[in-house]
Design goal:
Distance between the termini: 103 Å
Helix content: 40-55%
Number of helices: 19
Oligomer: single chain
Largest sheet: 6 strands, mixed
Number of strands: 17
Strand content: 15-25%
Radius of gyration: 27 Å
Strand order of the largest sheet: 10-11-12-13-14-17
């Protein structure tokens, strides 16, 4: 009995501390402590924001604190941490001394809008509704307002994790979506072609019972998916990874949802068994699905990478596919970086939610007065060149899943791989065309460029932009090459004012003024009011005056 009383007393004391009202002085001291700590111990985080700009944001926040409510100050710290734009540099609502609340709703962005993908069973009728507004504000306005509280490395990270912030009344008020702090959130929804309003109360339980981004089937939450069948990417959730042979398609499918060893079979053993199966069976394609993989221990990636490299049967363009998505993050970003660099992987699906090179592996820093834990990254993971600051790995073949496809267990991403029939697929079109150019096969450069630019399988590649870039580099050094590249570009994109203008510039540079006039006129005819059109007209007038 004595032990029970002690435990009860400790719990009560914890609640009192958690709900203590901090003074302006205490909050400001915490802010200064954070500012000083970052400057002294984590100055390398000033990569996407300068130290000067960070300090300016801190001063604005410091001066505003006296007029803020406790939850507004707490959210303000989230905004400060989000300035660094690294997902591992973060804070947690559930660990905050200021109590936060949330409505039991899971928002998810599909291509045609944001839907309620899942909800607590008390609100199961809302599942499948498209969200039009929150608290009377258009949904995209709300997304934009809460974005600054999310440590988003890119928009995919925000879609994966940031939409949760829209369920929290304290965030909505602090970010100006509501005029007052509310205990419930009003939603404007659309379902079955009917629009309606619904008010959902918030509670102190911030947990959403998820695994790999999906609602656990044994929880009190429900989603709209038909559970009588299960698509491959959701099968065997009790396993970290598994593979299946799709005999009709001569394809081996692998779902790998965490960079860690499965308790039944470690990574090295699993992939050894996998590649032995590939070698001894009629397999034409290998699919590695990491769209739900949020990371783990990247030292476990080696058997995967070396296994693919060594397998000549699979390591060919159009035979090895990697499915990525908005939850492909952290150690899994390291994996896809190396697969992209060392193998002939063709990426399908959505971009990843991590930068190519990034800061990970955080350290906990506790603010002295509020006792708020802040996690600051310290390890720079650089799998690619130091100047490669791309926001994510972009899929060669972008494919998204609609809400209707989700609930009916269709998988357009996997299906696009199974249907992929492009012969002699080229992973790097510009490198391929450069090699043809270097060999002097000029006619083939134009023919192959036209073939690939008109093939939907190469929708991932910006032919116009790359041709403009390369043509500009050649101009003045290799004018014939520049004319070939920029002329091909103008022919491939006859509706682009930019392509016509750049070819005209090359013709002018090589003194072919009459032909240059033709292409300046084409640029003007396409878009006379744009900057390109206006520049073309000015140059055309100068040429005509000579």
């Amino acid at each position: 009995m004595k032990n029970i009383i002690i435990v009860f007393t400790l719990l009560l004391a914890t609640q009192v501390i958690a709900q203590k009202q901090l003074t302006t002085k205490e909050w400001r001291e915490d802010l200064r402590f954070l500012q000083t700590t970052v400057h002294k111990k984590f100055p390398f985080l000033f990569k996407k924001i300068s130290a000067q700009d960070f300090d300016a944001e801190v001063e604005t926040f410091y001066n505003a604190i006296p007029e803020m409510e406790q939850h507004e100050v707490a959210v303000g710290f989230f905004r400060m941490i989000a300035l660094f734009k690294y997902g591992h540099t973060r804070m947690s609502f559930s660990e905050n001394p200021v109590p936060f609340h949330a409505i039991p709703i899971d928002f998810y962005r599909f291509p045609d809008g944001i839907y309620i993908k899942a909800a607590h069973r008390d609100y199961k009728d809302l599942v499948g509704a498209k969200v039009l507004a929150i608290a009377g504000r258009p949904i995209e306005e709300v997304v934009k307002a809460v974005y600054t509280t999310v440590p988003a490395e890119n928009d995919m990270f925000n879609d994966a994790y940031g939409l949760d912030h829209m369920t929290i009344p304290e965030v909505l008020h602090a970010q100006g979506i509501t005029d007052n702090l509310l205990e419930e959130i009003a939603l404007k929804l659309e379902k079955d072609n009917k629009r309606f309003d619904y008010v959902v109360p918030a509670n102190a339980d911030l947990r959403v019972p998820m695994k790999y981004g999906e609602i656990r089937p044994d929880s009190d939450w429900v989603n709209g998916r038909d559970t009588t069948t299960t698509p491959y990417y959701l099968k065997h959730f009790e396993r970290v990874y598994y593979f299946d042979y799709l005999e009709k398609d001569k394809t081996v499918y692998v779902r790998h949802s965490r960079i860690q060893n499965d308790e039944k079979e470690d990574v090295a053993v699993f992939y050894k068994r996998l590649f032995e199966f590939v070698d001894s069976n009629d397999v034409e394609k290998l699919v590695l699905d990491v769209r739900l993989n949020g990371g783990g221990n990247n030292y476990l990636n080696k058997p995967i990478i070396t296994g693919v490299i060594a397998n000549k049967k699979i390591n060919q363009p159009g035979k090895f596919f990697v499915i990525t998505g908005r939850r492909t993050f952290s150690a899994c970003q390291n994996l896809i970086n190396e697969l992209d660099h060392y193998t002939n992987a063709l990426f399908v699906g959505e971009p990843s939610s991590e930068n190519i090179n990034f800061y990970g592996d955080n350290r906990k820093v506790t603010l002295p007065n509020s006792k708020t834990p802040v996690y600051l990254s310290f390890a720079w993971w650089q799998d690619r060149s130091p100047w490669d600051n791309a926001d994510y790995i972009k899929p060669h073949y972008p494919v998204q899943m609609s809400y209707q496809e989700y609930v009916t267990n269709q998988d357009p991403v996997l299906q696009s791989v199974l249907d992929f029939k492009s012969v002699n697929f080229v992973l790097n079109p510009m490198q391929y065309l450069t090699e043809l150019y270097t060999k002097g096969e000029m006619d083939l450069v134009a023919a192959e460029a036209k073939r690939m630019a008109n093939d939907p399988a190469y929708g991932f590649f910006d032919f116009e932009g790359e041709f403009d870039r390369v043509g500009g580099v050649l101009l003045g050094n290799d004018n014939q090459g520049a004319l070939l590249i920029l002329g091909t570009n103008a022919a491939l994109f006859p509706e682009s004012a930019n392509a016509q203008y750049n070819y005209a510039q090359a013709l002018r540079e090589t003194k072919d003024f009459e032909k240059a006039k033709t292409y300046y006129n084409k640029a003007i005819a396409i878009d006379a009011e744009s900057n390109i059109g206006k520049k073309a007209l000015r140059i055309l007038n100068k040429i005509s005056e000579k």
